[in-house]
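Notes from the 1:1 (GR / supervisor)

We went over the backlog. Supervisor wanted to see one worked example end to end before approving the batch request, so GR pasted a single chain during the call. The sequence is below; no edits were made to it. Supervisor asked that the structure be written out right there so they could see what the output format looks like.
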Amino acid sequence: MDGEATDKAQSGGDARGDAGAAAGDASSDALELVIAVHRLVRSLRRASSNRGYSSTQLVVLTYLKDVGSARIGEIAAHVPCSQPTATTVVNGLQNSGLVERVPDEGDRRATRVTITKLGLAAVRAVAESRASALSRRLDTLDDHSRDLVRELIPLLTALADAPGEEAGREEPAGS
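Structure output shown during the call:
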């Protein structure tokens, strides 16, 4: 090990070019990004209005907005929650006119849940409230920082849309 690498290793730093250190940096960066994004989302939730909807109701509404329609089991798997909990949430949303049940074209015994125009409006109102809170924060940044944030939008969108593992869905060891 050369002197610089030795100094970095002893001080807890890493030697650039070492594959293990690079992986450690990526892992550390990922952890810092997850923490920062979670903090931002939580603070935006506190600074904006959920319009009286629970987080679970908003997750269900947003999911239905994205997928069009889903069975209760699919909703429960996405949230994640038990099927009875998903049924309770959907019943509440249906009673409020935010979702409706429609026959499943592939299986007439089953129903699918779809979001209504009122449900779409609710999702939009919550999103606009959070966007307004974020906009006020972005206004406090200098032009260069705002440009950096703007440049990150497509990258963060691509990361969010990238296929990946889902928690609890990994194959058991040895399969």
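Supervisor's comment: Confidence is low (pLDDT under 50) at residues 1-16, 169-175.
Batch request approved.
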